[in-house]
Amino acid sequence: MVAARFGGAQVALVLTAILYSGPALGQQTLAIYAPTDPPLSNEARTGFLDVIAKEAFRRIGVGLELIEIPAERALINANAGIDDGNITRIAGLEKFYPNLVRVPEKMMDMIFVAFTKHVDIQTDGWQALKPYSIGIVKGWKILENNIPDEATVTLAEDAEQLFRLLEKDRVDLVLYSLWRGLARIKGEKLSGVRVLTPPLVTKEMFMYLHKKHKPLVPKIAAALRAIKAEGIYQRLFQEKLAPLATED
User: Fold this and answer.
1) pLDDT digit string (tens) for 189-235?
2) Residue 161 pLDDT > 80, yes or no?
3) SS3 of residue 174 by DSSP
4) Which domain CATH number covers 173?
5) What SS3 state is found at 215?
6) Do 196 and 114 reside in the same domain of the chain?
7) Rounded to whole angstroms, how far apart are CA atoms 100 and 84?
8) Residues 101 and 212 in one domain
9) Between 30 and which of 73, 84, 175, 214 could a Cys-Cys bridge form, CB atoms 3.0 to 4.6 Å apart?
10) Same domain, 104 and 211
11) Which residues contact 117 (CB under 8 A, 6 or more apart)?
12) Pair 210, 103 in one domain
């Protein structure tokens, strides 16, 4: 396998180059939405998805600026060509936002779960949520489109507001992605908050670009495939995500 050719020192050098290299003078630069929500993205732009995206763009000779705006606005702006795209969204959004083009190589599998303080149920399907008050981040379409009509839904602007709803017992459950939720629980030492099982759904997540950048789509897809084949993707997963699943 290609990954076998890379030792720890070589991979460390590659990752250092990714994290600290900036766009060359005169280089085309795209502004892509990525919420600063560790461990996938953070303010320093050294999160798991930050590094993957930056390396893919570096390999095709295009600069990347990761920006943050509200999730719903990010889709509207990208579709209108105000911004250039979104770093991760579910497949099929091009049906509703026709100016967006999906990069066919997935960025990651996103695991969506329920977090709670007091509820004790098996989340073996969306219908299990019927009796409860639920918090979600506005603009997360996979959640908005699947929560049963019988549930009471409160929309949060971001993850901080979302988990505050749970902390203050204003909702029974909050629905969020597994890795981001675990990072928030550990980082903010949220007492008594736990994950319900099994996951509600696991979805492949893809980068989307405005159609004016369609020529870049196959190049980015090829770069992502190469990053995975070389073992860099798996090493980043083990470094940045896997430790969150262990008990302190």
Assistant:
1) 888 999 999 999 999 999 999 999 999 999 999 999 999 999 999 99
2) yes
3) strand
4) 3.40.190.10
5) helix
6) yes
7) 9
8) yes
9) 84
10) yes
11) 166, 167, 169, 192, 193, 194
12) yes
pLDDT single digits (tens) 77-114: 999 999 999 999 989 999 999 999 999 999 999 999 99
Please give the radius of gyration of the chain, using alpha carbons only, rounded to the nearest integer. 19
Angle at 156 between CA 211 and CA 185, to 5 degrees: 105
- For residue 173 the two structure tokens come to 């459950």
Q: What is the pTM of this model?
A: 0.78
Is 144 found in the same domain as 103?
no
Cα–Cα distance for residue pair 70/224, rounded to 1 Å: 26
**Selection from 91, 14, 8 nearest residue 59 by Cα:** 14
The answer to whether residue 116 scores a pLDDT higher than 60 is yes
221: its two tokens: 């897809």
- Distance separating alpha carbons of residues 139 and 94, to the nearest angstrom: 15
Same domain, 80 and 189: no
Structure tokens at 197: 């099982």
Place of tokens 């969506």: 112
Q: Is 201 helix (H, G, I), strand (E, B) or coil?
A: strand
CA atoms of 142 and 195, how far apart (whole Å)? 19
Residue 143 and residue 90 in one domain: no
Tell me the H-state helices in 85-244. 141-144, 159-167, 178-188, 217-229, 232-240
Q: Distance between CA atoms of 30 and 42, rounded to whole angstroms? A: 18
The predicted pLDDT at position 1 comes to 34
What domain count does the chain have?
Answer: 2
